[in-house]
Specification:
The structure holds two protein chains of two kinds.
Chain A: E1 5-13, E2 23-31, H1 37-47, E3 67-70, E4 73-76, H2 82-88, E5 94-97, E6 104-106, E7 109-110, H3 113-122, H4 143-153, H5 160-163, H6 166-170, H7 177-187, H8 195-204, H9 217-221, H10 228-242, H11 251-265, H12 270-279, H13 289-297, H14 299-307, H15 313-318, H16 324-338, H17 348-351
Parallel strand pairs in A: 1-5
Antiparallel strand pairs in A: 1-2, 3-4, 3-5, 6-7
Helix pairs in contact in A: 3-7, 4-7, 7-10, 8-10, 11-12, 11-16, 12-13
Chain B: E1 3-9, H1 13-24, E2 29-33, E3 49-50, H2 59-69, H3 76-96, E4 110-111, E5 121-122, H4 128-142, E6 147-151, E7 153-161, E8 164-172, E9 178-188, H5 209-216, E10 221-222, E11 227-234, H6 244-247, E12 251-253, H7 261-264, H8 274-286, E13 298-301, H9 307-313, H10 315-325, E14 334-343, E15 346-348, E16 360-362, E17 367-368, H11 381-401, H12 411-424, H13 434-448, H14 455-472, H15 486-510, H16 528-531, E18 533-539, E19 545-551
Parallel strand pairs in B: 1-2, 1-9, 2-6, 9-16, 15-17
Antiparallel strand pairs in B: 3-5, 4-5, 7-8, 8-9, 10-15, 10-18, 11-14, 12-13, 13-14, 18-19
Classes of the chains: A alpha+beta, B alpha/beta.
Chain lengths: 371, 564
């Protein structure tokens, strides 16, 4: 087994009673490189300063207490190894600070009630089953449906995804990745009787599922493979494709316009995207009054972009297009995906590990052993 | 001063289930927990929950397996209650939203588990405890208008008035404010005392607070010598590898590549009860057939389980293997060893969760009903928490309906505030650090109060525990603040651990036989004539532990030789 070596931790400290601003404190600890950041902090706490505050209990990435930012990235202190963190540390010192998007109470302890748990409560976080018609025994449900929701059930409410959610930074009212994943867990649960209501609610809410900008940060942040953004996309597909919910936020229309443009051109054409999202998904969309209004209101942004050279006028108006051969490839992807009798979803519990490749499209390959 | 019919300390499975049951029965309820409820250690229970649900199963078979697993120390009336009510409880969980995995027909799938004569363990992959805990918390939110939650409140003492429990004193971790909570009934549901040991599978919060609170208030502890070592904990750091792995078919191998359990338990092999498997592993290690660093481990070979099945049903340990041992468990064996996991003993209760102290209830690991006796079967702990959590909640609510709210003075608050101030005022550098004392306690217990015990080792442990208790009196803390002062809470928790450890060692010394998890190399036989009885520990007037005995309740199953 490896010998202990020295690591330096730079901890963000804040004592609300002192009246002082937050500051950095450095401690050098000695541990085997495979040990965790939390082990390091606990050693610093035990040997040097018992006043360092961090929530922690299980030390095995299951209780969700020790969400922090390590070298600027959200994660759990207990399942980040010292050696890996050192590799990412810019100046050879491992930096640990409290999670973002939530107020700091003390040192590495944030107020999850103020943000995270409020958002969880927002999505009616309990099963709404048939009240009168409860079966005598268990509900009979499809085997795969329960395995499927396990991915969302695996969420340990650590807040790592909330910490660095860019949409939430821009819009603090955004329901956020953790609560959306929680919502998916009920929407995908065949026992729930409110799936349509839940979807309509989250689609119509201007801070709901269409507020996500698809940035993947939460997928990187999640220590449990919940992939919150995937759950948000699955909520959108269920809302739009399965229930035909056309929301007042133009989320559904925006996605449809997006897809049409990419299918036709192989590339996105921003000048078309906006009017189509508001005016309807065709070339005529721009003549719809709603499209006119939104075009007018976005003129200042467009002007600024032109002045700063971010777009060239010809491209802005006419857009770009892939060569015909490449466009055919893109269209073939659309045809294949849309031509499937049922939608395939990526789910680690159903499909195995992501790096595996085998069965990554969803269902197990024929003849594979499942029992 | 907040006042409730039923006040529950701890918000793991037992506490949350008690709260929901008491609220359902019409009582006013508060749950007070030193951590946010979903951080409670029930979250770590992996493998599943036992219930005789299958049509070909019978709760009596479950009860017999449990009695046999307990090495006949379990109280059979309580075991019958637990096993008979298990199917309805599991179906209730299913109805409120637990996503139990299904078989091909859409019914609850059941996996094999240790010591069970049939597949009877319902599960959610290997996150069963987490799934149930989170669903109960969903219900707590749903009934938020009927259940008050005090999250991150640390209970410093029970208030005993007129010979009964009348409430508690607690400290708000976030602000440091102290408060008195009056209650007609108090239910302790604050878990086990695994932090007495190092390593342990238990979280840092498992510091025996509830056992110590009850013990100091005069309630007896029972079966404290019965400490379970789980057969499969990661050799690197003591993390739990679920018994579900062996339930799914994984093998245990020694250095010769031999599936050695065939020698110790020819019929159940890896799925014998935990005490049997842990002893077999320790014997292999002690006789030089161990593997890994210094030969202190045993191979757990999960590669024999189909890879797809492992990824679907044992995903958590795939992650643990990858993140904490650098091993892909679907492709190579992982090195494990027996490690402290569970305390069968606890605050003595009856089948309604009542302790001998009027108005005080206990449920879950903190309690000793005793349904686990000398050794708990895997997947019976979740069941224990839920059945007796619910029963305690119901009984406490019914009791509250016919009781007046006790009048409670604020004097106990001032006592506790002074106690905390005294800890804060200890001169820095004068004594040892809390962390050092805790470390010495953990390694001592793990050395002498482990799988194999003898009088010499236990005497050493007792001496160490008593010395540490003196040293703890002067252990200084660094944090003098009020907001999130974990340092001072750590000092209080250390006192709880030392009380629990003393009770464990004293009981282990007293039981001069081998039964269940207690194996005395100096008394290697089970001795039913002398020791078919519980050992109780009560606190004397001067703070010393006083030993007592309680009979084992036998309803249908006379003690017999245990074979797996």
């Amino acid at each position: 087994m490896a010998e202990p070596i020295a690591f330096t931790l730079r901890l963000r400290r804040y004592d609300p009673e002192s009246g002082d601003a937050p500051f950095w404190a450095e401690h050098t600890i000695e541990l085997e490189p495979h040990r965790s950041i939390l082990d390091g902090i606990l050693q610093a706490k035990a040997r040097f300063d018992g006043s360092i505050a961090i929530r922690c209990s299980c030390q095995a990435a299951i209780c969700g207490s020790c969400g922090v930012r390590i070298n600027g990235r959200p994660g759990l202190a207990c399942n980040t190894r010292l050696r890996d963190a050192l590799r990412d540390a810019p100046d050879g010192v491992i930096e640990v600070e409290p999670m973002g998007n939530m107020p700091v109470i003390k040192d590495l302890v944030v107020d999850m009630d103020a943000v995270h748990w409020k958002k969880i409560r927002r999505v009616t976080p309990w099963l709404v089953a048939e009240e009168d018609g409860l079966p005598e025994r268990e509900h009979l449900v499809d085997r795969d449906s329960m395995v499927d929701v396990t991915q969302a059930m695996a969420c340990i409410q650590c807040g790592a995804c909330v910490s660095d959610c860019l949409s939430m930074e821009a819009d603090p009212l955004f329901v956020g990745p953790a609560a959306a994943a929680k919502a998916y867990r009920f929407v995908a649960d065949p026992r729930d009787t409110q799936q349509l209501e839940r979807l309509r609610d989250l689609a119509e809410d201007p801070h709901g599922i269409y507020d996500c900008t698809h940035c993947f940060t939460c997928i990187d942040a999640c220590p449990k493979g919940v992939a919150p953004m995937n759950q948000i996309m699955r909520l959108r597909r269920r809302a739009a494709d399965d229930h035909g919910i056309v929301d007042r936020n133009n989320g559904e229309r925006h996605e449809a316009a997006f897809a049409t443009l990419v299918r036709d051109r192989g590339l996105l054409h921003e000048a078309e995207l906006l009017p189509r999202s508001y005016g309807g998904d065709s070339w005529l969309g721009k003549f719809h009054p709603a499209a006119g209004r939104v075009l007018l209101s976005s003129l200042p942004v467009v002007t600024k972009a032109l002045l700063r050279g971010k777009v060239r006028p010809r491209v802005a108006v006419a857009g770009e297009r892939l060569p015909r051969e490449d466009r055919r490839h893109v269209q073939r992807i659309f045809d294949t995906v849309e031509g499937r009798p049922e939608r395939l979803e990526l789910n680690l519990y159903l499909s195995g590990v992501d790096e595996d490749g085998a069965g990554a499209a969803g269902r197990p390959p024929e003849g594979s052993e499942t029992r | 001063m907040p006042a409730h019919d039923v006040l529950i300390i701890g918000a793991g499975l037992a506490g949350q289930r008690a709260a929901l049951a008491a609220a359902q029965a019409g009582a006013t309820v508060a749950v007070l927990s030193k951590v946010h409820p979903v951080r409670s250690h029930s979250v770590a229970a992996a493998g599943g929950i036992n219930a005789a649900i299958a049509v070909e199963d019978d709760w009596r078979s479950h009860a017999y397996d449990t009695v046999k697993g307990s090495d006949f120390l379990g109280d059979q009336d309580a075991i019958e209650v637990m096993c008979a009510e298990a199917p309805a409880e599991v179906l209730h969980l299913e109805h409120i939203g637990v996503t139990f995995h299904r078989d091909e027909t859409g019914r609850l799938d059941l996996r094999a588990f240790g010591g069970a004569s049939i597949n009877r363990t319902a599960y959610v992959a290997d996150i069963t405890g987490q799934a149930i805990l989170h669903v109960l918390y969903e219900q707590l939110l749903r009934f938020g208008d009927r259940i008050d939650r005090y999250e991150e409140w640390f209970t410093t003492s029970l208030i005993v008035d007129d010979g009964g429990c009348a409430g508690v004193v607690a400290r708000d971790v976030r602000s440091g404010a102290m408060e008195v909570f009056a209650a007609k009934s108090v239910i302790l549901a604050c878990g086990g005392a695994g932090q007495c040991f190092k390593p342990t599978t238990n979280g840092l919060i498992c510091t025996g607070d509830g056992m110590a609170l009850a013990y100091r208030a005069g309630a007896p502890l029972m079966d404290m010598e019965m400490v379970q070592y789980h057969p499969t904990t990661l050799v690197e750091n003591g993390f739990l590898i679920t018994e579900g792995a062996r339930g799914e078919g994984a093998h245990l191998l020694n250095a010769d590549g031999e599936r050695f359990m065939e020698r110790y338990a020819p019929s159940k092999r890896e799925l014998a009860s935990r005490d049997v498997v842990s002893r077999a592993e320790q014997t292999e290690i002690d006789e030089g057939r161990g593997v890994g660093p210094d030969g202190r481990g045993i191979y757990l070979d999960i590669t024999v389980v189909p890879r797809r099945r492992t990824l679907e049903a044992l995903r958590e340990i795939v992650n643990i293997g990858r993140d904490f041992a650098g091993v892909d468990i679907t492709r190579e064996p992982i090195v494990i060893r027996p490690g402290q996991h569970y305390v069968m003993g606890g605050v003595r209760t009856d089948v309604h969760g009542r302790t001998p102290l009027d108005g005080l209830y206990a449920a879950g690991e903190v309690a000793c009903v005793s349904v686990h006796g000398g050794n708990r079967l895997g997947a019976n702990s979740l069941l224990d928490t839920l059945i007796f959590g619910r029963r305690a909640g119901e009984h406490a609510a019914a009791r509250a309906a016919g009781t007046r709210m006790p009048r409670v003075s604020r004097a106990p608050l001032h006592d506790d505030a002074r106690r905390i101030e005294a800890i804060l005022a200890r001169p820095a550098g004068a004594g040892r650090r809390v962390s050092e004392i805790k470390e010495e306690l953990g390694t001592t217990m793990n050395r002498h109060v482990a799988v194999f015990r003898d009088e010499g080792g236990l005497r050493t442990a007792l001496d160490v525990v008593r010395r540490l208790r003196e040293e703890a009196e002067s252990a200084a803390v660094d944090d003098r603040g009020t907001v999130f002062n974990q340092d001072v809470l750590g000092a209080i928790e250390l006192g709880c651990l030392l009380d629990c450890a003393e009770a464990m060692v004293v009981s282990a010394l007293e039981r001069r036989e081998s039964r269940g998890a207690q194996f005395r190399t100096d008394f290697p036989r089970r001795d039913d004539a002398e020791w078919l009885k519980h050992i109780t520990i009560t606190r004397d007037g001067d703070g010393a532990p006083r030993i007592g005995y309680a009979p084992v309740t036998i309803t249908r199953w006379e003690p017999e030789e245990r074979r797996y």
